[in-house]
Specification:
The structure holds 2 protein chains of 2 kinds. Chain A has a domain at about 10-145. The relative contact order of chain A is 0.19. Chain A is about 65% helix and about 0% strand. Chain A contains 8 helices and 2 strands. The longest helix of chain A is centred in the last third of the chain and has 31 residues, at about 130-160. Chain A has helices at about 10-20, 30-35, 40-60, 70-95, 95-105, 115-120, 130-160, 180-200, and strands at about 160, 165. The radius of gyration of chain A is 18 Å and the shape is globular. In chain B, strand 3 (about 80-90) and strand 4 form a beta hairpin. Chain B has 2 domains: about 1-45; about 50-190. Chain B has a 5-stranded antiparallel sheet. In chain B, strands 6-7 form a two-stranded parallel sheet. Chain B has helices at about 1-50, 130, 160-180; strands at about 60-65, 65-75, 80-90, 95-100, 110-115, 145, 155. Classes of the chains: A mainly alpha, B alpha+beta.
């Protein structure tokens, strides 16, 4: 993507569909499995990632001429760690009820492959605004993926959505266990690939990550 | 050599700046966080003893599983209305942190789970009202976990026996402590307690 003619619409579509972090790039699957036993947890985690990714991409973009390419990875890691720590501390102080639900997960964002990968792939080569938009779009793609997985797993596993009981009992309990997370991920990923092939003539996800 | 210097300067600058930002954030947020946590603790205690009118202050410390906990005497116009203890029980995948309150006749009046990290869908059923409400009105000798129907004791949740046991043991330890402390003169049946395995 060249720096002088940036199409923000493309960046957005890319983040949410074309290179969706979970379903397409298959990055950050561990946290995606860990937090999506309920829609609410998935949503909150998605919001935190969205914020951190936008800020990290912005910072990396601003500092892209200052960061020495030979030590760029430790530099990115430190920028990510700083933003995660700031988010964690500010939330712990001001958003107590949300923090109680998410506190455990926020610090994990430091190790998210998707954050580092966007800093390396996009923000280090692009100007501030496109980088911010890319971080936001990728974060949004991650958020949506977590919500879809959360809906799928919570509805089947607990018979509820956002904590509200809809079905009596627990239809498929395994869906909220870690193994069920992979089932759900595989099924949704396959379903999205099918839609992509059938209606958009795409080739589906081709690469795997961790 | 020149390259080495450049790399060092660039890295050090980023690390120092990041350190400063994190330090400043901590300086401004930690007092607010501390106050909020203190207030939450007070509110949780207040919920455990709704009839108390005086501020609830810790009256001593006790420990279980190598962790320290506090107990409290809640009073209304200087007369005790509830005895509260913080406690924890070892569940399947976490320590289940709880608060227990006893009425002056040393029967459980309320149980509250503060935090736990049990298996979603299985162990986290110990949070359900139907399980926790079983403890209400029970005395020390009745706090025994039973696999199967029971009205007299505590019925374990099927599929979450270990988490149920964690809660039950944590509560029993706390009640034992409170009874030892405040139950002078009241004959307790603690010797008769049989352990369920």
């Amino acid at each position: 993507m060249s720096t002088n003619s940036v199409n923000y619409g493309t960046i957005f579509k890319n983040g949410i569909f074309g290179e969706n972090p979970v379903f397409r790039l298959a990055l950050s699957l561990c946290p995606a499995v860990a937090v999506t036993s309920g829609v609410k947890n998935g949503f909150l985690m998605g919001v935190a990632v969205l914020f951190v990714m936008t800020m990290v991409n912005g910072t990396v973009s601003l500092l892209r001429n200052f960061i020495n390419p030979k030590v760029r990875i430790p530099s990115y890691m430190f920028i990510i760690a700083t933003w995660v720590t700031v988010t964690d501390q500010v939330m712990a102080a001001t958003q107590r009820s949300v923090y109680k639900e998410m506190g455990l997960y926020i610090v994990l964002i430091v190790a998210f492959a998707i954050v580092l990968s966007r800093a390396e792939m996009f923000a280090s080569k692009n100007k501030l605004l496109p980088s911010l938009v890319d971080g936001f779009a990728m974060g949004l793609g991650f958020l949506l993926a977590l919500v879809v997985l959360g809906i799928f797993r919570e509805f089947l596993g607990k018979g509820s959505l956002w904590g509200n009981q809809i079905l009596p009992g627990k239809p498929v309990l395994i869906m909220i266990m870690p193994a069920g997370g992979f089932f759900a991920m595989g099924l949704v990923m396959g379903w999205l690939n099918w839609i992509d092939r059938k209606f958009f003539g795409g080739t589906g996800a081709s690469s795997g990550g961790h | 050599m020149k390259d080495l210097l450049k790399i060092t300067v660039s890295l050090v600058a980023i690390f120092v700046a990041a350190g400063l930002i994190m330090g400043l954030t901590y300086k401004f947020t930690s007092p607010i966080k501390f106050q909020a946590e203190k207030k939450e603790k007070e509110e949780a205690l207040k919920e455990m003893a709704p009839t108390a009118t005086d501020p609830i202050k810790p009256s001593g410390k006790w420990s279980v599983h190598g962790k320290n906990f506090e107990y409290y005497e809640a009073t209304a116009s200087s007369k005790p209305v509830a005895f509260i203890a913080s406690t924890a029980g070892k569940g399947y995948s976490s320590f289940i942190q709880m608060l227990v309150s006893l009425s002056p006749d040393l029967k459980i009046s309320d149980v509250k789970v503060l935090s736990m990290n049990e298996t979603p869908g299985l162990g986290d059923q110990v949070l359900e009202k139907s399980f926790l409400d079983q403890f209400k009105g029970k005395s020390l000798s009745q706090i025994v976990l039973i696999k199967g129907e029971t009205k007299e004791n505590i019925q374990a949740i099927s599929g979450a026996t270990i988490s149920s046991r964690g809660v039950t043991n944590g509560i029993k330890d706390a009640v034992q402590t409170l009874v030892d402390k405040y139950g002078a003169g009241i004959k307790t049946a603690s010797q008769e307690v049989t352990h369920e395995h």
